[in-house]
Each structure stands twice: as C-alpha cells, then as structure tokens.
Amino acid sequence: MMLERSHNDNPRRRSLCAPVMGLCAVSLLLGGFARPVGAEGYFTIQVIDAATGRGVPLVELRTVNKATWWTDSNGIVAFDEPGLMDLEVFFHMSSPGYEVPADFFHNRGVKLMPRRGGSAVICIKRLNIAERLYRITGQGIYRDSVLVGRSVPLKQPVLNGQVMGQDTVIATPYRGKIYWFWGDTDRASYPLGNFGASGATSELPGHGGLDPSVGVDLTYFVDESGFSKPMCPLPKGGLHWIESLFTVPD
C-alpha cells in the first residue's frame, strides 16, 4: 500500500539538484564526518525527487547482470554487493511516473562508485502530478534506512503485525482514532495468510499521530502469535472481506 500526494511544482525548488553534474548523481565519502551506527558496511544510495528533494520509494536500481534493488520509503538502498565495491557500476533506473534521462544507447541510469561508508544522491524527474510519499503496509518499509542508520518515523519500520503485504484498504475516523481494514493479508510463515479481513488503528494527526506527509503508525489487531487476526471470524471460515463501514446506534 502506497501513499501519494498531488501538488504543483514549486519553481523555487527546481534548482535543488542543479549544481550536481551529469545525471544529478554525486558520490560522497564520509571521511571525517560522523557515520551513523551500522552504516560502515554499506554504500548508501538515495534517490530523491528533483523538484522537492524528498526520497522516492519503489525506484528500481538494476545492474547490467540484472541484480535488482528497490528504494525504501526514504528513497534509500543499502548497497553491499561483493565484487562490485570500489568499482564503477552502472545502475539502470526505472519507476512508474518518474524518469531518468536516456543516453545515446537509450539506457536510463547512472554510474556510481560504491564504497563502504560512502553515499550517493540521485535526482529523478517526476512526471506524475502526484508525488509518491511512502509505503503504509508490508515488510521492509524502511529496511534500508535502518541498515544504514538513518532516522525513520515509524515505531515498527521493518515488520508490523507480521504483515508481509495487504490489499483493498478502507479507513474511517471513529472515536478519536482512524480505523483501517484490508482484504487479503500475507504472512511470513506461509503463502496463505489472513483472508478474513485485517484491522488496525492509528492516532489522529495532531493528537498523537504522525503528520500525513510523514507516515502512518499502525497498531494491528493481532492473534496470539502476533500476526494480524481476522476481523470477520465467521463460524464456517472461508474467504470474506469488508466492503464498507457504517456507524450505527448500538
């Protein structure tokens, strides 16, 4: 599940990446700067929106031998590939609604020099009006940020309620919280998960909850194992979902 926001480009931000040469990618060695805990073993790649400077989630970076990485909700990839460190590496880049300039051979990507403890920032042009902000559900929302020691807004940034992924979301405010419900919900331990509707709550923004531009901290309804439990546990089981929500008199 992914959140986007729609806004017009701010012309004052258009020059954010202009000083960086080529494809707006720059590799940095941390040198004397303080390194985040856990970052020493990784080369940190961050993909940012050229108009806003915000990290872009779900950007695919692929080497010429088709090894693939995806940016997390901070736009970060924690890169540590034996054989490719301290070597110039070309990364093909793609993401729906975003674009990197093509070279003479129509390859869209950037060349980097991955070094442990170093970092690179890559600007990517947004074609969509809507800006991709972050994932709300699933495993590894801030996986790479955690690996390289970057700050994250969520209390459980890598796995929450043992939920690997979900579909068909419905949400509504109720009694000072937001109630969330989903359909099919995958679990880590087996391909078949919860098919009886999943549920969670989050605090309202300004009342203990995160600003919507930052993220959503979910508290799942879970079973004894810690996995998201069915909200509609019908006696005969089977597959069932919540189609809509109503507030009615008790």
Note down, in words, how this protein is organized.
- This protein is mostly beta strands.
- The protein has two domains: 2-135, Sandwich (Immunoglobulin-like); 160-250, no CATH class.
- The protein is built from one helix and 17 strands.
- The chain has one helix at 143-148; strands spanning 2-6, 25-28, 43-49, 60-62, 68-70, 76-79, 89-94, 98-99, 109-112, 119-126, 130-135, 163-166, 170-174, 177-182, 185-187, 198-203, 219-220.
- The strands form five sheets. Strands 2, 3, 6, 8 and 10 form a five-stranded mixed beta sheet that branches. The chain has a four-stranded antiparallel beta sheet with strand order 5-4-7-9, with no helix packed on it.
- The longest helix has 6 residues, at 143-148.
- It is elongated.
- The relative contact order is 0.16.
- Mean pLDDT is 88; it is low at 9-16, 18-22 and 27-37.
Number of beta-strand segments: 17
The CATH superfamily of the largest domain appears as Carboxypeptidase-like, regulatory domain
Low-confidence stretches: 9-16, 18-22, 27-37
Profile the largest sheet: 5 strands, mixed
